[in-house]
């Protein structure tokens, strides 16, 4: 097994490093957990879990998560994009101190949300112009509600715009059931919940003409959220059929020519996850289970410290005792983080990504966003200003 540490750097990975990372996952047969984050607190919990699990990780933001990050108290058209950029900047500021590779990704983008996608791409292009890499490593387009031809055609157009920056594209064909982030597929035709090998191959055929950095979220009866077992059966073995069909059509030497993504992973059994990963799933989304874990930590804390949390002063140890060290958000938010960290670590274990990356020790020093992979524009500007003022002084001296 090639050591991941030798081929992929710590910190936010984009472009060729991202391709290397996902190739490694496909070859070695593991998947990377992709956890939805809606705050710097949840993002830090994911980074901490990845460091403790010695695993690469994917931090992803949904449209609703982006809007939440911008603040629920204001409404403006670009709120989701502004919040998504804010999350990316936060992660970029701290990721390298965790010493593991981090992929920045945006989640489902339906047709009506394309303005969000456009705005994120604009941010990627601006970041690319300054630092030589995009702000985000990867984005998802989910036009699975549209007819296949239209879904694929729109993906191809966007992929052309992303390819020069080497941004990964995840697309969805077939429908993930359930409800997530305001999209309700609870009553959809059950047959649409299973993508066919021909559909998957049609996507591969169209996108591979533009580039090789793409993955497909094919539906195999997966459902967003956690429900009681119902009529739809999760069939991860169907993913093997997609690989087999593509291999035959391409005459490919690769056992698993297609990068597959698993949505609706929350509530899946260990065997279902194993089968999915065996069949080429390199990324599994986790949202519902980590939402519960985050809440559960706070729930337990409130239960345990209830009598210390009823007023600023006064608790079982005395009527005049202060309670600041219980209601300080850093105390109770941390409790939520701790249980979320544990839950993400469980996913690293189940997906086989645990132990693949020996974390580097955090670098010391004042972090600058641009230091991570390119020249720092602030340093460059300062240097230019110093040179400029020295030249002015020189000219003044010569004129005397
Ligand atoms: Zn999903």
Tell me what the structure shows.
Strands 1, 2, 3, 4, 5, 6, 9, 11 and 12 form a 9-stranded parallel β-sheet that branches. α3 links the parallel β2 and β3 (57-61). The protein starts with a helix and ends with a helix. The model is unreliable at 372-380 (pLDDT under 50). It has helices at 4-7, 15-28, 40-53, 63-70, 79-98, 114-131, 148-162, 197-207, 237-250, 270-278, 288-305, 324-327, 329-351, 377-399, and strands spanning 11-12, 32-36, 57-61, 101-106, 138-141, 168-173, 177-180, 183-185, 214-218, 223-224, 260-262, 281-286, 313-315, 318-322. The protein contains 14 helices and 14 strands. α11 runs antiparallel to α13. It is globular, with a radius of gyration of 23 Å. Helices cover 49% and strands 15% of the residues. It is α/β, with parallel strands linked by helices. The longest helix is centred in the last third of the chain and has 23 residues, at 329-351. Bound molecules: zinc ion. The site of zinc ion (ZN) has 6 residues, from loops. Its cofactor is Zn(2+). It catalyses: beta-D-fructose 1,6-bisphosphate = D-glyceraldehyde 3-phosphate + dihydroxyacetone phosphate. Belongs to the class II fructose-bisphosphate aldolase family.
